[in-house]
């Protein structure tokens, strides 16, 4: 079973940037597609971005396209989410997880604790 630890969240003004990190351990990290998800207060958790095992293929929810970039470093067992031009509606707890594939976003591991991102207007 893979263990996931998210970090890098914080409070930022609208238009600002943050870089989230997700450190994975347990299973062979480089074998798996990875994804970022978020959950805003009172809302269901939603898919944000995914990346295949090699980093060559990515997928994004429409609302973050052009603003967020997912990447990974298999040597460090870490996946990143660079978030630029943040908006108040991006406020949520962000989680990472292994997913079935870059296009099939079904999570396959237990959730970590997440990292809070708060964007002020």
Task: Please characterize this protein's 3D structure.
By secondary structure, the protein is mainly β. It is 0% helix and 49% strand. The chain contains no helices and 10 strands. It has strands at residues 3-7, 10-13, 18-25, 33-39, 46-51, 58-60, 68-73, 78-83, 92-99, 115-120. A 6-stranded mixed sheet has the order 2-10-9-4-5-6, with no helix packed on it. Strands 1-3-8-7 form a 4-stranded antiparallel sheet, with no helix packed on it. Strand 4 and strand 5 (46-51) form a beta hairpin. It is globular and about 40 Å long. The termini are far apart.
Features:
6-stranded mixed β-sheet, mainly beta, 121 residues, globular, 0% helix
Mean pLDDT: 95
Low-confidence stretches: none
The 3D shape can be described as globular
The side-by-side strand order for the widest beta sheet comes to 2-10-9-4-5-6
Q: Strand percentage, roughly?
A: over 45%
Helix content: under 10%
Count of runs of 4 or more consecutive helical residues: 0
**N-to-C CA distance:** 39 Å
SSE order in H/E notation?
EEEEEEEEEE
What structural class do helix, strand and pairing data support? mainly beta
Write the SSE topology.
Blueprint: E1 3-7, E2 10-13, E3 18-25, E4 33-39, E5 46-51, E6 58-60, E7 68-73, E8 78-83, E9 92-99, E10 115-120
Parallel strand pairs: 2-10
Antiparallel strand pairs: 1-3, 3-8, 4-5, 4-9, 5-6, 7-8, 9-10
Q: Can you describe this structure in just a few lines?
A:
With 121 residues, the protein is mainly beta. It has no helices and 10 strands.
């Amino acid at each position: 079973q893979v263990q996931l630890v998210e970090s890098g969240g914080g409070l930022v003004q609208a238009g600002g940037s943050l870089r989230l990190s997700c450190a994975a351990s347990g299973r062979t990290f480089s074998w798996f597609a990875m994804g970022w998800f978020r959950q805003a207060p009172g809302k269901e958790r939603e898919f944000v971005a995914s990346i295949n095992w090699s980093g060559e293929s990515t997928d994004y929810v429409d609302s973050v396209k052009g603003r967020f970039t997912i990447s990974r470093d298999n040597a460090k067992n870490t996946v990143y989410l660079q978030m630029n031009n943040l908006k108040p509606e991006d406020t949520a707890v962000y989680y990472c997880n292994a997913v079935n594939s870059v296009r099939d976003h079904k999570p396959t591991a237990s959730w970590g604790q997440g990292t809070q991102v708060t964007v002020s207007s």
